[in-house]
Model the fold of this input.
Amino acid sequence: MPVVLLVAAAAILGGVVLAALGRAGEMATFVGDTAPIELDEVSATDVALLRPPMSLWGYNAQATEDALRVIARSVTARDVEDRDAAPGTGRSARPRTGRGRIGTGDQ
Done:
């Protein structure tokens, strides 16, 4: 009986080693079951109200990455637009509020 257990343990260990080395085949790729985020322009309200879909442990990683990618693209486009709107002045054409230090009243 102990020999059978040792053989079974060795077979399982061998399978784990093969899988760890990548020789057990590839894992299946599944398509996400959430709708893709289709936003052209993102406002501060959109970001504040963003609630990524939940998964078993935490947020759905793919949906969260997609949302952050859209937000980053929108912020970059807005920064380029601000830079191009007021060339040579070093100042933004869009007023910035709420950029002071927290709790000091500097805004």
